[in-house]
Amino acid sequence: MSHVNTIASLRLLAPLALLVALAACSGKDEPAPAAPVAAPTATPAAAPAVSAKVQSMGTEELRDLASKALRENRMYAPAGDNAIEYYLALRDKTPDDASVKSALTDLLPYTLIAAEQSLGREDFAESQRLVALIEKVDATAPALPRLKQGITGGMQTALKRTQEETDKVKKDAENRTKQLADQQRLAQQQAAEAEAARTIAAQQDAARRDGERQDAERQASARREAEQRQQTAAAQQAAAARQAAAPAAAAPSLRPVSTPAPRYPAEALRSGTSGEVLVEITVGTDGSVTNARVLRATPSRVFDREALNAVKRWKFEPVGAPVTTRRTLAFAPGG
């Protein structure tokens, strides 16, 4: 009986509460064009409308707690211990209970008023909790869009205000820091100018001495390079002279043992091409050819390979020291 009596009393108070809510809204429910409010950059994650603890309770416990909450005027708060959450959990468990639906309908105006008040004092977490309760009671409640927009706009306004205050404090601090830095910079500049005046002569003198040292080093380096070039040129000339003289002196001392003729390239033979190749060979002390290279070939790169292959197979009588000489190999069809 106490549960029914409490609901009846609540019904008598509901119209008055609704009038108060309408007066508090002061015409906010009137349809009017409003500028769209962008979603805030970050909003706290919404908790479930009905706490998990309440949802886990049995129907009898929920009825008793709901009646007690009504008697103690805990219609929508505190979170997790209020009449509207108990009745919402009851409705989930007994969806056909008309008394539960009626109680939620009667509690809705009080929750609307509380949502408006929490929004007015910028308690956005509480506003979101109450709006979630309202939406769970009646997802089509006319006040829901306005309340949600009010929460979003209020959060943006509060965030903007906080940002402006933060920016102002930051700007004031930056100005003070800048003034102090300017003073320090001026003092440092004056000290630096005085120090520069004392050290400029020493720097110029050091630069002069360094320049003289570098000039002396460059001159010495140039002399060394010139001497090295002269020595290198003399060594190259001597080597060239020895190389030019070596074949003429060494050639008569070589006695061939086996000098097989080169193979005639097939393509040159078919085309009737003739020519000659001048090769330079080095004969080791055992009489074998240790090195060979083409000095001149006519025509170019036609007989080079066969000429080198041939001379590398040549054998001479052993000599006392390696001998470098030159030979000309002629290629003629039918020769």
Structure description:
This protein has 335 residues and is mainly α. The protein contains nine helices and five strands; from the N terminus they run H-H-H-H-H-H-H-E-H-E-E-H-E-E. It has helices spanning 2-25, 52-55, 59-71, 83-93, 98-120, 124-137, 143-250, 266-271, 304-311; strands at 256-258, 275-283, 289-298, 315-316, 323-331. A three-stranded antiparallel sheet has the order 3-2-5. A hairpin with a 5-residue loop joins strand 2 (275-283) and strand 3 (289-298). Helix 1 crosses helix 3, helix 4 runs antiparallel to helix 5 and helix 6 packs across helix 7. The chain is elongated, with a radius of gyration of 55 Å. It starts with a helix and ends with a strand. Mean pLDDT is 83; it is low at 12-43 and 244-251.
Brief overview:
The protein is mainly alpha-helical and 335 residues long. The protein has nine helices and five strands; from the N terminus they run H-H-H-H-H-H-H-E-H-E-E-H-E-E.
Architecture blueprint of SSEs:
Layout (H helix, E strand, L loop, with lengths): L1 H24 L26 H4 L3 H13 L11 H11 L4 H23 L3 H14 L5 H108 L5 E3 L7 H6 L3 E9 L5 E10 L5 H8 L3 E2 L6 E9 L4
Antiparallel strand pairs: 1-4, 2-3, 2-5
Keywords:
single chain; 335 residues; mainly alpha; 3-stranded antiparallel sheet; two-stranded antiparallel sheet; 9 helices; 5 strands
